[in-house]
């Protein structure tokens, strides 16, 4: 992927000093390229709203909202021990299999928190062309992906359990696996889960589309 990084002045500095620093070479945007093993998708901060029955409302976010991190325009601030940076990302190539890591857990000095936000995602036909650079868009023929596995975390961050949804390619059916138990599951039920890790397979032809739609 292509990474654009720009150093930020310390927030406590006077405005005049910040402006002066932003003109220096150290604070100009730098571009680099690096391989990736998976794409980390950041969830929005979960609101603490309650409905009229005083029950917490579980927020939802579309998959494409959290994929905008890789459109080459969306900037995000990253903080280190000493410095802060603004970064934006764009993809240079698309692999045959793509892993999404949905960042549900955050740690601080005292405890681990879990974000319960539900990600709304389609099971098939996720086109990632718009997240490629213009040069890559001209050369990449196949940019559409179908979900083949979905790892779910249920429960509290320190006491929870895991389930996995797997597509059986031979029949086109989905199965849920938890420990030694294997059961059928409807595709529409998969999207209601607290997805944690997903594996997507790139389509190579129209035949791939037929196999996922059951045609």
TrEMBL record:
Single GO molecular function: cysteine-type deubiquitinase activity
InterPro entries registered for this protein in UniProt: Papain-like_cys_pep_sf, Peptidase_C19_UCH, Ub_carboxyl-term_hydrolase, USP
Superkingdom of origin organism: Eukaryota
Tagged with keyword Magnesium: no
UniProt xrefs under Gene3D superfamilies: Cysteine proteinases
Catalytic reaction annotation: Thiol-dependent hydrolysis of ester, thioester, amide, peptide and isopeptide bonds formed by the C-terminal Gly of ubiquitin (a 76-residue protein attached to proteins as an intracellular targeting signal)
Domain USP positions: 1-203
Keywords from the UniProt entry: Hydrolase
Gene Ontology biological process terms, A to Z: protein deubiquitination
Family matches, as Pfam families: UCH (PF00443)
EC number(s) stated in the UniProt entry for this protein: 3.4.19.12
PANTHER family: U4_U6.U5 TRI-SNRNP-ASSOCIATED PROTEIN 2, UBIQUITIN CARBOXYL-TERMINAL HYDROLASE
Protein name, per record: ubiquitinyl hydrolase 1
Organism annotation: Alosa alosa (allis shad)
Lineage of producing organism: Eukaryota, Metazoa, Chordata, Craniata, Vertebrata
């Amino acid at each position: 992927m292509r990474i654009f990084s720009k150093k930020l002045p310390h927030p406590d500095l006077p405005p005049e000093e910040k402006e002066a620093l932003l003109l220096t070479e150290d604070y100009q945007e730098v571009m680099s390229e690096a391989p990736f093993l998976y794409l980390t998708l950041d969830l929005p901060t979960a609101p603490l709203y309650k409905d009229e029955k005083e029950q917490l409302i579980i927020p939802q976010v579309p998959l494409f909202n959290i994929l905008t991190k890789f459109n080459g325009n969306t900037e995000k601030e990253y903080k280190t021990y000493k410095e802060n940076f603004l970064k934006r990302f764009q993809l240079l190539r698309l692999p045959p299999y793509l892993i999404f890591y949905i960042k549900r857990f955050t740690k601080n000095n005292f405890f681990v928190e879990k974000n319960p936000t539900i990600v709304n995602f389609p099971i098939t036909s996720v086109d990632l062309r718009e997240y490629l650079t213009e040069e890559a868009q001209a050369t990449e023929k196949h940019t559409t992906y179908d979900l083949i596995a979905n790892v779910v975390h249920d429960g509290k961050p320190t006491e929870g359990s895991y389930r996995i949804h797997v597509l059986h390619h031979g029949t086109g059916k989905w199965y849920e696996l938890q420990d030694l138990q294997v059961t059928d599951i409807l595709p529409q039920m998969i999207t209601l889960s607290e997805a944690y890790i997903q594996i997507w397979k790139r389509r190579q032809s129209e035949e791939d589309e037929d196999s996922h739609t059951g045609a």
